[in-house]
Amino acid sequence: MSTCIIITDEAPFNGLINIAKPLGEMNAIVVGSKDLAKKVAISGVSSVLFLEACLPEAKANIVAKAVRELSPKIVLTSPTSGARAIAGAIAIALDAVIIQGIINISTENDTVVVEQMALNGRVLDTLTSKNHIVGFFAGEDIELSENSPVAINALDGDGYAMDINISSAGSETSGLAEASRVVSFGRGIKAKEDIALINSFASAIGAEVGCSMPIADDLSWLPKECYIGRSGQTTSPRVYFAIGISGAPQHLEGVRRAKVIVAINNDPEARIFRSADYGIVGDLYEIIPALKKVLNS
Ligand SMILES: Cc1cc2nc3c(=O)[nH]c(=O)nc-3n(C[C@H](O)[C@H](O)[C@H](O)COP(=O)(O)OP(=O)(O)OC[C@H]3O[C@@H](n4cnc5c(N)ncnc54)[C@H](O)[C@@H]3O)c2cc1C
């Protein structure tokens, strides 16, 4: 019985791999950074398909299509926001049952047997299913020993795999280099959960999401290849939204070729306004929902 595991940048994955290992062939799909794909490739999985993404949920349909081709009986992932969206698309593609809170899983002939934590860990249920299942792992993460690396194949936008040479030297890139719209945020965003506000705005206007260096480098809220600037990515979109970004020269070096810069900042003296074509002075937590409302009307 084959298993597919979906790994995004947002959560540790060793515990997930550990419970899937006894099930046999285990194909991993990594939606995130190349560094993550390399880590997964030495974790004991049978194969790795890799899709580079700053915003995993935006790739849900591509991943679902790839999983449908693999047609695994079991799909496992972690309950992160990106993985939840992907899992929903996969469940539709496979006509699968979604199961939360999985801490262990096994098979008996063609039946999947799941141990599920319920009632905040006070109850341990055992569920059985003959259907395809898409499950969210809720157990502890663990240390895994290193295995020989398996090949990493890139998953392109049409759902077909093509070979790439992960070990070759070269700069890491994300969709930011080619994007025609970029929504980028900085330390004006106060909590990791608030990135959902940025993501929903970016989705509404069909933009890639980027950030300032501290967001990726200090806080690790996004993969490193998502930050823009002198030591990060260069982007040349038709429109670049700088949200809660002060406009340090190192950041601006990465957006020199943007056609239009729209800055949103609550400090009227913020340096970003000197480089912006349009500036909105105000609290991003009020401005972004207001902009979304206008877009939806
Ligand atoms: C060698 C070197 C290389 C570097 N390379 C890069 C690089 O490649 N890319 C990069 O980005 N940085 C780089 N930096 C760091 C850079 O100097 C800045 O420190 C960084 O860009 C600041 O990030 P920020 O604008 O997110 O944060 P901050 O400077 O803290 O700015 C946050 C902004 O958010 C605004 N804000 C706060 N709350 C709100 C709110 N509710 N609504 C609206 N606005 C709000 C504030 O007014 C402020 O302007 C580099 C630094 C060095 C020394």
Summarize the structure.
Pfam families: ETF (PF01012), ETF_alpha (PF00766). Belongs to the ETF alpha-subunit/FixB family. Helix 3 crosses helix 4 and helix 5 packs parallel to helix 9.
What does this structure look like?
By secondary structure, the protein is α/β, with parallel strands linked by helices. The chain has nine helices and 15 strands. A ten-stranded mixed sheet has the order 7-6-5-8-4-1-2-3-9-10, with helices on both faces. The chain has a five-stranded parallel sheet with strand order 12-11-13-14-15. Helix 3 crosses helix 4 (81-94) and helix 5 packs parallel to helix 9 (284-296). The longest helix has 14 residues, at 81-94. The protein is elongated. The termini are far apart. Residues 158-173 have low confidence and may be disordered. It binds flavin-adenine dinucleotide (FAD). Residues 176-255 form the Electron transfer flavoprotein alpha subunit C-terminal domain. Belongs to the ETF alpha-subunit/FixB family. FAD binds at residues 187, 244-251, 265.
Q: From the alpha-carbon coordinates, what is the Rg to the nearest angstrom?
A: 21 Å
Bound compounds, each kind once, are: flavin-adenine dinucleotide
Order of helices and strands: EHEHEHEHEEEEEEEHEHEHEHEH
Helix percentage:
25-40%
Q: Mean pLDDT, nearest integer?
A: 88
Give the helix tally.
Answer: 9
Q: Give the uncertain stretches in residue-range form.
A: 158-173
How much of the polypeptide forms β-strand, as a percent range? 25-35%
**What's the total count of β strands?**
15
Helix-strand makeup class: alpha/beta
Give the spatial strand order of the biggest sheet: 7-6-5-8-4-1-2-3-9-10
How many angstroms does the end-to-end distance come to? 48 Å
Largest sheet: 10 strands, mixed
Shape: elongated
